[in-house]
Amino acid sequence: MIGWEDVYKVVVAMVPLYVALMLGYGSVKWWRIFTAEQCDAINRLVCYFTLPLFAVEFTTHIDPFQMNYRFIGADTISKLVIVVVLAFWAKCSSKGSYCWSITSFSLSALTNALVVGVPLMRAMYGQTGVDLVVQSSVAQAIIWLTVLLFVLEFRRSGVSISSATKDGNEQEKDVEGNTENAGVLSTRPSFWNLMKVVGMKLAVNPNSYACVIGLAWAFVANRWHFEMPSIMEGSILVMSKAGTGTAMFSMGTFMALQEKIIACGTSLTIFGMVLRFIAGPAAMAIGAIAVGLHGDVLRVAIIQHLSNVVHSSRLKSQQHCRNPLPPSSSPRNMACMQKYSALQ
């Protein structure tokens, strides 16, 4: 049974995060301290420095030889279940679409990042919860971010081809007055070309190589049993300690720059809540049952699906929702769905 002391621990862990968020929101919306350009500079500071070093700090302290692979397996199964359901929905439903499937996957399958997950799980389950969050975040950054970037590039290439073909046909009509093909041929890039683009994006993604570097160090340090030099650890900590606060502050400035906090309307808000609070935990429960999780590990697995990626979902919505899409899946609506998820 959950007692008042447990509730108090959670409140103590979470309130400071939302104080930072409200300070960011108020500094733009109410006090007009920062302009949009300055908010972008704050976001870049978080994206390129504080969050990557925050990830490095926690990743370097995990033990890769003692990771809970059943927990990671359950998380993988839950994501595969969601992929299958969304693929079936996109294929068989008149309201389904490839673009909305990507957004729905982000909302329901991506677990909470280190920013919210670490303080929340530390308050509820101690170091065990923190270790599981870090393990999940590393797997997500290395595996699922790659998959997500690939499908986004695949979608982008399809939109580009469709747009180029349409423009070629319109130009020919203007010149010749007929619809004969002018030889404008557009082909979808090959798998390896798409993977090359994805690899380049991962190579310049600070959070990706932060996890890779941290995991590599963890392997070496635990294999040969040596500690990180204090001067190196201090250099990481001086920036990583600001990771949580600056990420939430940046989220607040982003919210303040929008016309409305939740601009996607009642129906999409409810849809987002169903994905976040029902679909995600239900899929994780299926994965947990499949691999036999129980006790605190099971609770951590399900609770982390009730939280969300505070910062990365916003970055993905900004980076990838700019191409022309059908009205039902416009960039604004897709971004709104991801912004709503960041409020949880």
TrEMBL record:
Magnesium is among the record's keywords: no
Transmembrane segments: 6-25, 45-62, 68-90, 97-120, 132-152, 202-224, 236-257, 269-293
Subcellular location: Endomembrane system
Recorded superkingdom: Eukaryota
Family: Belongs to the auxin efflux carrier (TC 2.A.69.1) family.
Bilayer topology annotation: Multi-pass membrane protein
GO biological process: one example: auxin-activated signaling pathway
GO terms, molecular function: auxin efflux transmembrane transporter activity
Record's keyword terms, sorted: Auxin signaling pathway, Membrane, Transmembrane, Transmembrane helix, Transport
Name of this chain's protein: Auxin efflux carrier component 5 isoform X2
Record flagged with keyword Lipoprotein: no
GO cellular component: endoplasmic reticulum; plasma membrane
